[in-house]
């Protein structure tokens, strides 16, 4: 449904994209991760026909985004970082206006009603959008992008600035779209968002894809699980570090691979007369992946040109 090959884009002599390759299968979601300035929004703007690439090729539903831009626009929806909602209009008026702009005619009012119900906005439908909470506002923005039921949807950091409850509500709405067969390209700086929603994840940095795979595949590249143990007595901590042959730290962290190795570790400690005060098995996270491949934590801002 979405295919990108060798995408290149520069602004004022600064190359933002340096040969990006991406592919999204029908009814699936690809999450595009990366620090600020990595080129995520530039990719979305090119795919949604708002920018032209300097080189490379991109297609949506087999349509070339440069040569067949008008046809592409009829088959996509876009929710950007900045809302397209008119705050002075009511929620219903916003959706009806979007429907008429998309040539729905008399069907615009009925479609607006369907979307207001789908996104739990019926009670607030006839209030000005400026009175909406942040979560309601973003749901209305997402609803507006779906006015024509597009098969392909671009979500550019759709939950930025939302509180946890509003983010969870948005996630549920996005899951419903995936269940209905919508193909989605999501950009986000929330690694848990990509982990929860995406079938595949691509990490973009310095204008190119530096890692790609499912969440589990990417985590597996970072390393095995780790057992983290603490002891009440610092002397016990020192002894445990010696028994397990690991550097001495307040939090003892040992790489393990599965339950068998964890059991052997505990048996070695028990044999030395040592009992941990706490034990936690920590699995690799997408944040670990992000740090491993980019050299910085997820969400950390890169310097912009």
From TrEMBL:
<dbReference type="InterPro" id="IPR003593">
    <property type="entry name" value="AAA+_ATPase"/>
</dbReference>
<dbReference type="InterPro" id="IPR003439">
    <property type="entry name" value="ABC_transporter-like_ATP-bd"/>
</dbReference>
<dbReference type="Pfam" id="PF13732">
    <property type="entry name" value="DrrA1-3_C"/>
</dbReference>
<dbReference type="Pfam" id="PF00005">
    <property type="entry name" value="ABC_tran"/>
</dbReference>
<dbReference type="GO" id="GO:0005524">
    <property type="term" value="F:ATP binding"/>
</dbReference>
<dbReference type="InterPro" id="IPR017871">
    <property type="entry name" value="ABC_transporter-like_CS"/>
</dbReference>
<keyword id="KW-0547">Nucleotide-binding</keyword>
<dbReference type="InterPro" id="IPR025302">
    <property type="entry name" value="DrrA1/2-like_C"/>
</dbReference>
<keyword id="KW-0067">ATP-binding</keyword>
<dbReference type="InterPro" id="IPR050763">
    <property type="entry name" value="ABC_transporter_ATP-binding"/>
</dbReference>
<dbReference type="InterPro" id="IPR027417">
    <property type="entry name" value="P-loop_NTPase"/>
</dbReference>
<keyword id="KW-0046">Antibiotic resistance</keyword>
<protein>
    <submittedName>
        <fullName>ABC-2 type transport system ATP-binding protein</fullName>
    </submittedName>
</protein>
<keyword id="KW-0813">Transport</keyword>
<feature type="domain" description="ABC transporter">
    <location>
        <begin position="2"/>
        <end position="231"/>
    </location>
</feature>
């Amino acid at each position: 449904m979405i295919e990108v090959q060798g995408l290149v884009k520069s602004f004022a002599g600064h190359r933002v994209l340096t040969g990006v390759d991406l592919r999204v299968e029908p009814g699936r979601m690809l999450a595009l991760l990366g620090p600020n300035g990595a080129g995520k929004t530039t990719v979305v703007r090119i795919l949604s026909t708002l920018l032209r690439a300097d080189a490379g090729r991109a297609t949506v539903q087999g349509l070339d985004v440069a040569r067949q831009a008008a046809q592409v626009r009829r088959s996509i929806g876009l929710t950007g970082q900045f809302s397209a909602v008119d705050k002075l209009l009511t929620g219903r008026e916003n959706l009806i206006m979007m429907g008429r702009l998309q040539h729905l005619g008399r069907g615009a009012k009925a479609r607006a009603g369907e979307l207001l119900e789908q996104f739990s906005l019926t009670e607030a439908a006839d209030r000005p959008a400026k009175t909406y909470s942040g979560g309601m506002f973003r749901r209305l923005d997402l609803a507006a992008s779906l006015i024509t039921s597009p098969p392909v949807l671009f979500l550019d950091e759709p939950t930025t600035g939302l509180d946890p409850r509003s983010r969870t509500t948005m996630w549920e709405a996005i899951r419903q779209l995936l269940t209905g067969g919508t193909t989605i390209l999501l950009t986000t700086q929330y690694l848990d968002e990509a982990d929860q929603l995406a079938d595949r994840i691509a990490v973009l940095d310095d204008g190119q894809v530096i890692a790609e795979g499912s969440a589990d595949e990417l985590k597996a590249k970072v390393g095995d699980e780790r057992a983290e143990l603490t002891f009440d007595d610092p002397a016990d901590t020192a002894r445990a570090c010696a028994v397990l042959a690991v550097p001495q730290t307040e939090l003892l962290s040992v790489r393990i691979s599965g339950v068998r190795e964890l059991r052997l570790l505990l048996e070695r400690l028990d044999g030395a007369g040592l009992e941990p005060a706490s034990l936690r098995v920590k699995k690799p996270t997408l944040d670990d992946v992000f740090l491993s491949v980019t050299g910085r934590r997820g969400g950390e801002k890169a310097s912009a040109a």
